[in-house]
Target: Methyltransferase domain-containing protein
Amino acid sequence: MDTDMNRISDLDIYLTRMQRSILDKMFFIDKVFEPFKYILDFGCANGELIKAMKPMFPDYEYSGYDISREMIEAARQNVPDAKFYDNWDKIDIPFDESLINISSTIHEVYSYGTEKDIDLFWDRVFGSGFRYVTIRDMMFSQAENIPVRKEQLEAIRNSTYAEWLESFESVWGKIKEQRQLVHFLLKYKYTQNWDREVHENYFPVFTEELMKRIPDSYRLVYKDVFTLPYTSWQIRKDFGFELTEHTHIKLILERIK
Model:
């Protein structure tokens, strides 16, 4: 998998965006009840989620994993009393007593990884025996993938963001389906790191495909599909229409076998 952090032209902006959703990324903490001792943040970046959770929920032991050594070094400085790893095989916590949190990571694995990387990712998630698996990421439902709402597309073409739409279509092709339009609407504000963002696939799998990946050894404890309120507000402000499709998903899975 490509770990070259140079593809993020402005790392400070990238990390600031991640911090804004910290509270939402803690969604699972009041919805899991069977005892567990460890929380492993998969794709932990600079450790901001762990830093926020530790004083609020001190009874857990926290670890973070990221393939970027640069991020892991930043996390170790940011949260010196937690454990951080860039080598999966060196993680030394009992997975059967752990919750693995996977936030805004699935789409990056698919965007930058090979098929082998993707298979290895899911094997680690579901094959390691974690007590809980929690997921929060961008996700689009196949049931909502209708032909593009032409009035929405036209509103964008007539806006100050038309050039970014043209750039998006040069990578992804002319927009014909609503999934493509919503894909653009989730990234049009991120112009500072545009070259990276425009090539990253926010919707690599449909929601229905994700649900089919859950093995029989896990049961669904919690599911929520939603659109971020800030995103809805920004789209309404910039283009004058309401985004009705769901853009994100939250899942909590509990191991039963």
